[in-house]
Amino acid sequence: ARRCDTLPGMNAANENVMVVERALLERLGMFQGLTLDVEHYLKVLLDSRNYRFVARQEAEQNPSLKQLIPYFLIVHDGRVFTYTRGKQSGESRLVAKVSMGIGGHINHLDDSLFGDLYARAARRELEEEVALPPGCTDRIVALLNDDATPVGQVHLGVIHEIGRASCRERV
């Protein structure tokens, strides 16, 4: 899988990531945990007038910004794929933590004149992490906000579900 930090000239030190202002999220209705009211938030947060790209190092330390993170749950036969993050995870605050999804940052290289920026970035993140059979699709099922942790204070997860029914072959 291709990682952002292995792309030519790209690493966390020079990556610019998509952020929205926390104040915008507060105006829309701040929540802790999950919300299923995805459309209410995403139609505003993904409007190009409401997001920008900033240096990842700044975004990781600035709780007035929220980084939008596509996050994929892989579900098979009622079980959710989980894993424990290793020392090479790229985010030291998450080492040895159990994760139940995969995903990552939307960066400035995802931006172009054509197509849906979010969909393109989400697909890139998924393909960097796993190989799925042809025909798999996903659907956005929730947003996740966790202001109880330093990592959560600067991220807003966009939760996608990938299930066996969406693939022509077994996941």
Shape: globular
Number of helices: 4
Largest sheet: 8 strands, mixed
Cα separation of the termini? 17 Å
Low-confidence stretches: 1-8
Q: Which series of helices and strands comes N to C?
A: EHEHEHEEEEEHEE
Helix fraction by DSSP (H/I, runs of at least 4): 10-25%
Number of strands: 10
Structural class: alpha+beta
Residues in β-strands, percent: 25-35%
Determine Rg (CA atoms, Å): 16 Å
Mean pLDDT: 84
Summed up:
The protein has 171 residues and is α+β, with helices and mostly antiparallel strands. It has helices at residues 22-29, 38-45, 56-59, 117-129, and strands at 16-21, 33-35, 51-55, 65-76, 79-80, 83-84, 98-99, 102-103, 139-145, 155-163.
Fold topology:
Elements: E1 16-21, H1 22-29, E2 33-35, H2 38-45, E3 51-55, H3 56-59, E4 65-76, E5 79-80, E6 83-84, E7 98-99, E8 102-103, H4 117-129, E9 139-145, E10 155-163
Parallel strand pairs: 4-10
Antiparallel strand pairs: 1-3, 1-4, 2-9, 4-5, 4-8, 6-7, 9-10
